Structure formats: structure tokens, C-alpha cells
Amino acid sequence: MKKIALLTLFAAVSALAAMPDQKQTYIDKTFASMDTNGDGRVDKTEYTSFQQSRFKNRAQAVDAAFEELDKDKDGKISKAEAIVVPEISRYFDGLDADKDGVLSREEMQRAMIAAQTAESPEK
């Protein structure tokens, strides 16, 4: 009986030890994406290219979401239109930088940039 318990404990500990650290995995994947020439270092050109690509992809996603939310196609997101996305609805007043009661594409883009620079991998 003790032998089975020890084997079970050993298996559990081995499984835990084998689980990759999510933060380290995120860092490793991000570094590999930036290190385009594979030399184990990221130079300024590689870093700039990576960030430009990252922002471009996010900007395209924000533009697509903006178009989808802008039901009346007036180029603005009203509080009524924003209600379908809880995160936008919840932070609407804070996102509305010029306090005109609607979100412009530029305000949405600024929010995206702020969110991207603050993001980090989940624990």
C-alpha cells in the first residue's frame, strides 16, 4: 500500500515538475518571434519590426471590432452600441477621452495601445 502511495505521489510531483512555467513559455515564444535571424539576441531592428507588426495586427482587430459595433455607421460608438461588449461598456466613460459621449476610432486605438503596453501573461 505504501509503495502505491509513493508511486502516486512521485507521479504527481513529476507531473508538476514537468508543467511549463507559463510566464517563461510566454517570454520564450515572444523572444523567438523577435529573434528573426536566430542569433540568440534581439537587436533594435528586430524589436521595432516585432512591435510594428504587433500593433498593426491589434489595430486591424480594433478596426474590425469598431466597424461591427458601429451599428448606425456614423463613425462613432455610442453607449448603446457599446453595451454588447461588457469591457467597453464598463470602461466607456474612461475611454471617452474628449468626453463627448461617444467613442471615436482614435479613442479605441489609444485604448488598444494602452492595454497592449500593460498586458502580461496570466499567472
Automatic annotation (TrEMBL):
Superkingdom of origin: Bacteria
Secretion signal, residue range per the UniProt entry: 1-17
GO molecular function: calcium ion binding
PROSITE patterns xref list: EF_HAND_1, EF_HAND_2
Domain called EF-hand: residue spans: 22-56, 57-92, 95-118
UniProt entry keywords in alphabetical sequence: Metal-binding, Repeat, Signal
UniProt-listed SUPFAM superfamilies: EF-hand
Record protein name field: EF-hand domain-containing protein
Organism the protein comes from: Acidovorax cavernicola
